[in-house]
């Protein structure tokens, strides 16, 4: 009977130590057990937004262009270089690295009225979606 109790106690304490180490660690065990994430950008799953869509052409008002770079599963991709191209006006930032959510924000303005078509690029490939901003 004493051997069974000692054996059970050893198993219990070993399990407790493993559990406690997992709970107080930095999650390194989770990194080994988790499936590898896809780091390849999906040109069709990535998104592009602009706000405002209409603004004065006074060279001071800016529209914020936000690109969300995602993989095929819809997960945001971290530290990926994103560029935008516009058909009218000027871009404040030439290239931005995405944040932990896969987000990169740019600012555009114009001094003359017109419509600017905004395209985003990652690894020299154009995202499937574009957006238009109107300068009045």
Summarize the structure.
Helices cover 21% and strands 35% of the residues.
3D structure, described in words:
- Keywords: Membrane, Transmembrane, Transmembrane helix.
- The chain crosses the membrane at residues 6-24.
- This is Big-1 domain-containing protein.
- Residues 55-135 form the Big-1 domain.
- Belongs to the intimin/invasin family.
- By secondary structure, the protein is α+β, with helices and mostly antiparallel strands.
- It has two domains: 2-33; 47-135, Immunoglobulin-like.
- The chain is 21% helix and 35% strand.
- It has helices at 2-24, 28-33; strands spanning 47-51, 54-55, 63-68, 81-86, 90-91, 95-97, 103-109, 114-122, 125-126, 131-135.
- The strands form two sheets. Strands 2, 4, 6, 8, 9 and 10 form a six-stranded mixed sheet that branches. A four-stranded antiparallel sheet has the order 1-3-7-5, with no helix packed on it.
- A hairpin with a 2-residue loop joins strand 8 and strand 9 (125-126).
- The longest helix has 23 residues, at 2-24.
- The chain is rod-shaped and about 90 Å long.
- The model has no long low-confidence stretch (mean pLDDT 90).
